[in-house]
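Suppose you are handed a protein chain with no further information: no name, no annotation, nothing but its sequence. What can you learn? This example shows the usual starting point.
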Amino acid sequence: MAGKDMTEKTLEAYNDVFADIVNVLLFDGRRLVREEDLEDETPRSIYKADGQLHEEERDVAKRWKDCGVRIALFGIENQTEPEGDMPIRIIGYDGAAYRSQLLRYKKPGENGETASSADSVRVDGTAAGVTVTGSQEKPEKYYPVVTLVLYLGFKQHWNKPLTLYDCFQIPEDLKPYVNDYHINLFEIAWLSDEQLGMFTSDFKYLADYCVQMRKQNDYEKPSETVAAPNMDTVKHYDELFKLFTVMTGDPRFEETANEVRKEGGSRTMCEVLDRIEARGEARGEARGEARGEARGKALGWESALLVSVKNLMKSTKWTAEQAMEALGIPAAEQKELKAKL
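A reasonable first move is to predict its three-dimensional structure. Written in C-alpha cells, the prediction is:
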C-alpha cells in the first residue's frame, strides 16, 4: 500500500527514530548510534539494463559517522507482507551503494571509464569523475552497507526466502561458486517484552501495536512495557498517528489526534486512545438503547421502530438508512418505514 509505505518512511526518516531502530535491533539496545551522527543518504540508485537507465529506491538510508569519519551506511526496508524476491532486491540495493562509493571516489579515466559513461551514475544521480566537495570528498576508506528489513506483518511469520540460495534452484556442482546473500530480517510483531522496552523513540508505539495485534488481534492502549499511562509524550505526533490511520484503516486515529492538538490536550498515545474508546462506547450505548427499545415492545412494534430510528439518527447524526441498518431492520421493511419518518 503506497500510503502505508510513505508514512512508515516519514517516521523512520527522523534521526532519533532511525538510530533507535538500529540500536535496538542490531546492538541489543546499546546506544552506539547517536542521532547527531547520522546524515541522510540519497535513497535512489540508477542502473543500466537493456540499453536504458532505470531507477530503484530504498525506503530510508543514512550514513553513520563518528568523529567525521563514515563508519557505515544503514538502510531500512519495510514489509507488511512476505515477499519472495527480497534477497534479490536487497543485494541490488547494497550493490548499488557499494558501486556508488567506487564511482564517487574513482579518478576520471580509471579502467577506461569517463564521466559520460552511461553506467557510471552515482546513487545521487551525478556522473562519475565530476569534482565534488564537502561531505563527498574522498574518505579515508570505503565503508560497509547494512540493510535492515522490518517485517511489520502480524498474522503469520515471514515464510519467504531469507537468502539468495533460497530464491532459485542451484545445481550442486555449481553451488560452491555461487555466493550466497543473507538478509537481516526482523519480525517486529515477535519481539520480546525486553526488546520492546529498549525502544525510546516513537517507533516503540508501532512495535507495540504489531506485538499486541499478533497476540490478541486488538490494540486498546500502549502496553506497560513501552509507556507509563499519561506520561510519554509523542514526539512526532502527526507522523505517528497518520501511520496508525493507514496501518489500521481507522481514520479516528488521525482525526482524534488533530482534535487533541487543537484543544491543547496532552499529546500522548493514551490520551488519543482514551478519546477513541469513549467515542466507541457512546456509539455502542446509543445502538444498544435503540435496539432494546425496539425489541421491548410487543405491541405497536412499528411505532417503536420509528421512534428508535429517529432517536438513533438524532444521537449519531446518521441517515435513516444507516440507523435502520444498525437496528437490524430487514431491507424489505426499510422503504416502508422510511416513508413514515
